[in-house]
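Worked example 3 (structure in, sequence out).
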């Protein structure tokens, strides 16, 4: 099991909040049947999460 240091978690928290925000936006667009905007919001949320995971892994590998 991989543990994430608290400092790395604090640095990625804003990215997680942005991803959650875009997830909420995509849920709203889906409820309004705005599927192209839903797909765009989901892609942004996934990109933000992937970027956060990549940054956390990159910073973690530098600390070793």
């Amino acid at each position: 099991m991989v543990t994430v240091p608290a400092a790395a978690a604090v640095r990625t928290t804003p990215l997680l909040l942005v991803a959650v925000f875009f997830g909420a936006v995509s849920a709203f667009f889906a409820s309004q049947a705005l599927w192209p905007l839903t797909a765009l919001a989901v892609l942004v949320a996934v990109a933000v999460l992937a970027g956060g995971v990549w940054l956390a892994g990159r910073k973690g590998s530098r600390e070793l």
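Notes: Residues 35-63 form the longest helix (29 residues). Helices lie at 6-31, 35-63.
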